[in-house]
Predict the structure.
Amino acid sequence: MLIYIIIFALSTLFFYKASRISDTKQRWLLVLLAILPVALIAGVRDDCIGTDVLVYGKDCFLDVYQSRWYSEIDLVWMIRMEPGYLLLNYVVSRFTGSYNVFFGVLMAVQMFFVMKALLVFRNRMPVWLALLVYYFSYYNISLNQMRQSAACAIVLFACTYAYKRKLLPFLIVVAFACTFHISAFVAFAIYPLFIFLRRTQSYKMMWSMVIMGIVMALLVQKSVDVVLATMGLNADYAHYFKDSTHGFFITKFLITLPMPIIFFCYRKRFFRKETIYLAFSLIVMVVATQARELIGNDAERIMNYFVITQIFALPFVCAHLNKTWQKVVGTLGMCFYVAYWYYMFIYNGYHDTFPYTSIILKQWL
């Protein structure tokens, strides 16, 4: 656990410095230094860290390494893997046969797009705080869902073009994201959705969406039975708090509520054209916790493209408070995200990224 916290802190420190420097060359040098720690840890990890490493990550790279030309890559991988992801495998494999190097490069690509997206707003909010939120929310997931995490990071950058209302760059970047994971095609809907929400500017509609999502989620999860179980009236339902399926989703649902509640309690101050999509993102984040139960197994992963912009919520709130409240809300907000990270990835072992092990790291040390 400690190694994650150390690399998150180190990376965020460099990025904090980068976000406050006006010189472009110095800024990107610091961004590179911010990327290195998280890319290094992703690269040197054992192949048991992240389920998908053994599902496709390791074997795909080793097979590509044995191919002389891109066209000679096994047809199975050509059909199963997206071209952008395969091409990155191929390029890295021309320099090394180590899949660990590839995992590090893939993480570096992912974080490049995340940090590039954050820097767009460096003069409007403490973007280093958004990076911390990203690490505690998505970094461990990216050690498992490698292709989709890269696609989500690219879509996050595409959202900056939606914010600026630049359609063509938005379409190009989303198309690029699709070359890492085909599910990113749903992100094409972000631009028209962004325009629609900016025009409506109806927080009543947002509240209606929130209430409907909450009611549906709680009904599906049989909340009455859960309450009975906690009261000891029916032990048969106790697994709703303990299992990694039902109880996991209920707890995850409850954990996601604080930030949307804060955001909407101060809606008169925060609710504006520029942040309407952020409000929508927070709504989707809450509903997405029940998506597997409501829609299907892949629903939550697809909704991630609409949820990822929620990393801007805490820094945006802090940017519109006085210095005293910035510290209070910022500290409490990060405590919430750290608690979320601990419960999900450390306590529950979500995505199989804890405990972290690395034979390579042990050899270096």
